Amino acid sequence: MAVEKGSLTFVFDQNLGSRIVELLKIAKMQPDGGITTLTELGFAANAPDEDWMPALGSRGRYVVVTRDGAILRAAVRLEAWKASQLILLILDGSWGQLPISGLIRALIYWWPLMVDEADAAPPGTAWTVPHTVPAPHKSIRLITPKLGRSI
Q1: Structure confidence at residue 1 as a pLDDT band (50, 70, 90)
Q2: Which helix (H) or strand (E) holds 118?
């Protein structure tokens, strides 16, 4: 069941920094007003994933954007995510190697598809997002997290 465009809130994990969110807001990327950070929502910058995921999930329908490929590797975090019903967009490991300009370019390139996939996704869905731009042979990929396996 798709929700109205703009009713999702995209929350950026601390590992991406606040500059990314500021730039997306300046660029007026959609959903308008629906892009924020965990710290802007009142979570401590160093809050463990297993603490903020259930708390955020209890607030409503959120999409978390993260570079943390290990976010679902440990049992405690995997269970916290499952219980939270958050939608995860996990940027593949190579995003961390990009300079800020490359990261912004890739994020703007992938953003419309990220929003569309998140909008159509049922709660508790996780996706990986490739870093390459353009990426004719790759797309956002639905994943099924398994304990101990890196994303």
Answers
A1: very low
A2: helix 100-120
